[in-house]
Amino acid sequence: MIRFDLSIGLDYTVLTPSDFVFIIQPTNTAHQRVTWERLSIEPNPAWEEQVEGTPPNRHLRLRAEPGSLRLRYEAIVDLVHHFELPVDISEVPIADLPADVLKYVYPSRYCQSDHLVSVAMQEFANMPPGYARVEAIRSWVQSRIKFQVGASQATTSAVETYESCQGVCRDFAHLMITLCRALNIPARLATGIDYGADPALGPTDFHCYVEAYLGDRWYLFDPSGITPRMGLLRIGTGRDASEVAFATIFGSVQWTMPKIRIEAQGDELNGIVLPFRHDYAISTDPAGSPPDEATLMLQAQDFAIKDRALPSAAS
Amino acid sequence: MIRFDLSIGLDYTVLTPSDFVFIIQPTNTAHQRVTWERLSIEPNPAWEEQVEGTPPNRHLRLRAEPGSLRLRYEAIVDLVHHFELPVDISEVPIADLPADVLKYVYPSRYCQSDHLVSVAMQEFANMPPGYARVEAIRSWVQSRIKFQVGASQATTSAVETYESCQGVCRDFAHLMITLCRALNIPARLATGIDYGADPALGPTDFHCYVEAYLGDRWYLFDPSGITPRMGLLRIGTGRDASEVAFATIFGSVQWTMPKIRIEAQGDELNGIVLPFRHDYAISTDPAGSPPDEATLMLQAQDFAIKDRALPSAAS
Amino acid sequence: MIRFDLSIGLDYTVLTPSDFVFIIQPTNTAHQRVTWERLSIEPNPAWEEQVEGTPPNRHLRLRAEPGSLRLRYEAIVDLVHHFELPVDISEVPIADLPADVLKYVYPSRYCQSDHLVSVAMQEFANMPPGYARVEAIRSWVQSRIKFQVGASQATTSAVETYESCQGVCRDFAHLMITLCRALNIPARLATGIDYGADPALGPTDFHCYVEAYLGDRWYLFDPSGITPRMGLLRIGTGRDASEVAFATIFGSVQWTMPKIRIEAQGDELNGIVLPFRHDYAISTDPAGSPPDEATLMLQAQDFAIKDRALPSAAS
Amino acid sequence: MIRFDLSIGLDYTVLTPSDFVFIIQPTNTAHQRVTWERLSIEPNPAWEEQVEGTPPNRHLRLRAEPGSLRLRYEAIVDLVHHFELPVDISEVPIADLPADVLKYVYPSRYCQSDHLVSVAMQEFANMPPGYARVEAIRSWVQSRIKFQVGASQATTSAVETYESCQGVCRDFAHLMITLCRALNIPARLATGIDYGADPALGPTDFHCYVEAYLGDRWYLFDPSGITPRMGLLRIGTGRDASEVAFATIFGSVQWTMPKIRIEAQGDELNGIVLPFRHDYAISTDPAGSPPDEATLMLQAQDFAIKDRALPSAAS
Lengths: 315, 315, 315, 315
What we know:
The structure is a homotetramer. Chain A is of the alpha+beta class. Helix content of chain A is about 20%, strand content about 30%.
């Protein structure tokens, strides 16, 4: 089990009466328990939390009058991962995809997979299907795209990232999703926090990563490679960033960089480990089978010792 | 009430084992009752119907072996419309949009509303918000875009249609949806059959049209203008065509044009009228208040007599 | 006649050995005489001026070593305009276009006129051909596009400007050129200095404007409307900005904003007037008939008095 | 020396009075002599040949009235190649590029090299500059893009070909040119006839190929690989296809496939050989040093014997 202590601070200067839709609160599921949280918003506008979608995204909606708007959110979140050996995980034939997974094979706003079918076929069609092929896609994206703050915009899509070869975590995620879908592998975007990222990339920030549906559940991938996968918290889940922006604002507003803090709290005696890099496949899919904790924790501690030394560990 | 008798025939030559996902069966809701239907598929592959989404799309899934595949579907469908005077219908402030409607303000694969904000503002920002503004968008799209079979492809998006000024019903719908969303008006795509279309446009075919969320429900618009709105059957509903293609095929398959027949059966004594063009706003939103038929039918017959003569009737 | 006194200062910090190609010196032609000029470059790299193309562009080429690079250019330039009444200027049938003009009907990097044919036809096909139609295109671009520094990039093309509705003078010029070509009207881009621009748009800077081939020569248009046309100096001339960037740099270099000064020197007794806004068509086409100065100056002074009061003066 | 006997037949049904600009006649230069030619056009419209540009493109212009238009052209053309060992040919530093070559480093309509800089850097920046690197680009394009008639349109640019991975010779040429320019290697497009192409690709047709400026002249490359380079005739030369379409038509016209015949006439005793595939770099650059035929012919015959057996011959 992983335990995170996190806080998020958002500050705005509202110029005209404006509507906000935030998706910043971690999802509460069997594999990710929000054990404590506190939200304060100043001044004190009426707000509403609306849970929508599967997995559930927590929409925090409010209307702010001109002046300053200050939002502070704190939470303790426990993650319980499902672990699997990559070699045991296969791709799922279209005919066997669950009804609610099928839609993640189709193109979306930022992931126009219909445009990159030939590219995906050329690079990956010769590889045997399975988890290893999806990891190869992830690795290809990481090595080909340069992490460059400011090189992309809100409108930048995967096709443009494929051309420009630069972007931020969101662009990495969109391109990996697009290539997966072009091969009929369901893939979706999740948002979180960039726990463990190199400080040279800037202060702690929101993060975007990828889930691909393999075997019987959604597995985690970080195409930017900046976060160990065990550190990937789930805030929003969607087809792509068009569905899970951390803040969607209707109105005229000035903003500053989010102030985000995240710490993992290790307590190995109680089975709480710090996120680390290894080569197991991991999942926090709320729809996956609920975790059998005792077993899993033993298993986790077991390979934690063994695999920390693996030189080839991906992320 | 409107009553349709329809049949759909789809014929394929399957070259390699292929998966099919069809969305061709009309949705069954309080405003649209499928009172009888029959489906036959030859040869006799295992198939499954999966209902997914809100409003519910009926996914017909099957796997076909090489050889011919023949699908025949017939149905009787009754439509009960909600009528409203356009002048009574307002746009909904963002703050008041229901949680499950909000997502239809965001950009999607074919409707990159983030790209056309300036265009939408220039053309429509000066108009008072309300149904009339959405109808103005519809009318602008109809007059600006030329209906041209073959001028667009499966990958054509609204931004490209805005440039090329030509396309088919799907392109008209994508552009109208995009302009609505750019003004923060929720809009989505529905598929149906082009009842009443000019035979010069070709044989009866599937159709795409638009729903915009106004007042307390989704209202119907046909930006191509080829179908009277009362003739708009609901088959699939989604963000755009990426979610509701009538056939999604994974495999190598040859196909021929769909063979579609649709007839409206009038029986005025029993309150069943033929679709006609008028200026009322109409809705078949499954989430809207259920219809009070007696009243509605009287109302319908009433304005049917009055309004048939209206020279300015839009569609 | 118009007389300009101008200076241009460019400062760079060269990080790696770098090649520079500048196009900053005004062209020397019968209608635009560079009567005096001085160029200094520090430190003292070998440089070469290569005149290339028709009209001639003056390429200033040099190779700089790491360190600072400082370029100062000063000149006195006299402009002698050809004047014509708009109503007397017709569009030229394709069959009558000179061989060296024909290429300006074809699409180019930033002016993909093949993409915007339908748009151009819808907006302008119904207007009678002639100078007035080209002015209508110019006016449409000026009113539709918002001048917004930072809204476009070096890669931004006319199709993107048509979508985003914002940009700088270069984007205005590209869109106007594109729409002209889409109607088979030869159009090209010229660079100059934004004499007379509103200081609110920032310090004096390089400028881009349009020439359209009408009647028997190239006439001047300023789609951004920020400069009176009589103030349009000719530096570079090309299909679009890809051919006449004021500085093309091969290497790693830091730069600051150009420091530019331009002043018009009036001396009405000697027939030298200040640029002013009026509705005559004007040209400085080097290939046009050489000016008959005595006549022209009288004419200019004549309408200068009459037309300064015209409320409808375009630019 | 190579000798071609060729004929071109073009047939149109003109629906409205239409202007035609043809570029179908081979250029006449020191390295490519048109020793005999005959042109007939029925009915007998006035036509004009205008030679424009460097190297000179022969524009055949005419205006046709409604009815049929029939053009027949025949010619005998001798090619004298300059041969060089690839290892002796270097790339040219920007500072040393001739003034009239520099423009071929800039982006153009179909070759938006500014968009693909990162791609070019990733794939080719690590290779030593020189002819071999340009050949590596050519080979990469040939292996990556699938020759597919109908997969591209008149508006298709190199960026789109890079995404879709399919196209015809024109698309291959545009992508190779774009990648060269992104590395600051001057590259341009030439048109010719697809001598020697596999009949499975269709009847003899016009062809597009690439020239890259290396050492002291323009060298020939065929990224589609369908023609032996010695069989590359020069018809038009330009930045990209926007400048050298074989027919540009202003009007409403129906057309049929061009009827083209080309034969190489061998006469080894007189030093006239048939085109063959080998690994020498070759050029027909009119601006290159004029050929010393006696020497060259000996050299050609010499390696003709040696190199025909080379298994690695590129094209």
